[in-house]
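User: structure tokens for DNA-DIRECTED RNA polymerase MITOCHONDRIAL, please.
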Amino acid sequence: MAEEYRGLVREMCERKLAPNLPYVKALFLGWFEPLKEAIEREQKLEKSKKQKSAFSPNIELLPADKMAVIVMHKMMGLVMVGHEDGCVRVVQAAVQIGIAIEQEVRIHNFLEKTKSYQRKKTLHDVQESMDKEKEMLRKRVNSLIRRKRLMEVQNLVKQDETKPWSRDKQAKLGSRLIELLTETAYVQPPANQSEGIPPDVRPAFRHIFKSVTKNPGQKIVKKYGVIECDPLILTGLDGTAKHMLIPYFPMLVPPKKLERV
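Assistant: Done. Predicted tokens:
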């Protein structure tokens, strides 16, 4: 997926085709490079520290381009299935992103381990058979990833001996990645050429607080943090969905009964 975005960036720059992309993919294309660079800076900062930051644990365990793709897709997926006016609870989004990163880290580590097994082949028959099994398993995992059969991939890499992440660690990493997304992702409406007004560039996502009552009629108000999606994105998503809807045509002519041959 990360390779696809890098290829798209090159092609769009060379052929100037960005306006012709599907709406969401066009957004991702604009967000990908700034978010990737922000994650790379964070990873370099973590490596230079003597003690790891509690707010971005395990951020260096995956290439920045892969992390950027996961964050963009997860956040937009949560926005599209949400029912709160384009808002997603921060805790929910952070944990979901953390879980997705952990799963990708497991797959990444599994593929790297099987590569190392292939490099360290010995003359022993037992070791050679183990190497063949590892190589076959690696090819199978790669094949399943290409076919997007992620549940089967997760079942195969469950044998990994890596210690599972705590919910706290997942949430902290997800929170930091969301923060980087809010700092780097922007949207702007189509420019009005006639009036000469400068473009209205604004953040695609904002971290705000919402107040809600637990039950109707109660005065007890609870505040919680949400990531609010810009209305321009919601409008674009609605327009895309309308084009994707297939109109229903009733069957005016009843079907003929099947005859035995």
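User: Anything notable?

Assistant: Confidence is low (pLDDT under 50) at residues 122-126.
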